[in-house]
């Protein structure tokens, strides 16, 4: 009995049931493995005995035989028992010991049967105690209370009908009651310990699942952030490439100075696009800090962006009303920079030749407002495909920063992107 259900518990692997069953199956009782395997429990499959189960069952059988043999030997020397009855008692005890092998399959039925058999057979006492212990381990308390209570109630009557030849009645009854209660208490303790193991395993599995979901969510958010960054950075550069490459294609007779200027813009834009792409790819290399990457743009870099757009041939008017752009928080300034960059990119694609106005106002406590407006284009504008992902990404950026972004056609015509960002 000591090895059956007391089972020395070891930490459960977080990896789940397969590692537990395949790696250390011999160490755990089959009943516990059945509880730890939800698929087997739902399918109603009977757990197979492990090597440990076979050892424990054989030990229980051997213990029942030893106890039964000792009781049979005492029964022969008892003058109150006729010889013929002693032989019948031994036969019943042998059958009870053989029935111990059924204790895992029918714990309740075996315990009830052993209650009746133990009352008429001294040799079945060991098997009865093992059956009662198994019932306490594998069944809820209500079954244990009924069967254990009947066993305790029958103890005085048993020793009254079949008194022990060597031990007085007043000693035999309390000893048997205490032994029965101890067996039941031990079995309930083992059951509680198993339930604790199952609870800890389920808790570990839930924690693992939650950790995996959090990791997946973090990866998804990181991918979205990288996608937004890649779109905002590369769209501006590639638009410059497209505009000036198109000018060279449709104006082959352009003056050499203009052609050289367009080629220089294409070369510089391609170089900058490659640099930006390397910087973004460096973010994807987990655990490898990008020491060679350029610093992220802030609001102070807005003048450089406007100058770059003017060199590319755009008409841009910058109305910078922030007294100290360097004092703007880096995250807010970077978001404002990306909004202005995307607004200039869209104006270059959909309203070429118009003068774009970029207005930045704000102060600490009131927030930062960024406005990019372009009037309607004059004449026919070549169709430039667009998916609208840039404006969607800008809206997400502003929302994540705690602000808001609006875009559309103002009453005076043209197109406008207007964003407000918090500035504590």
TrEMBL record:
Its EC number is 2.7.13.3. Gene3D superfamilies: 1.20.5.1930, Histidine kinase-like ATPase, C-terminal domain. GO terms for molecular function: kinase activity. The chain crosses the membrane at residues 54-72, 84-102, 109-137, 143-161, 168-189. It catalyses: ATP + protein L-histidine = ADP + protein N-phospho-L-histidine. SUPFAM superfamilies: ATPase domain of HSP90 chaperone/DNA topoisomerase II/histidine kinase (SSF55874). Keywords: ATP-binding, Kinase, Membrane, Nucleotide-binding, Phosphoprotein, Transferase, Transmembrane, Transmembrane helix, Two-component regulatory system. It comes from the Bacteria. Residues 223-287 form the Signal transduction histidine kinase subgroup 3 dimerisation and phosphoacceptor domain. This is histidine kinase.
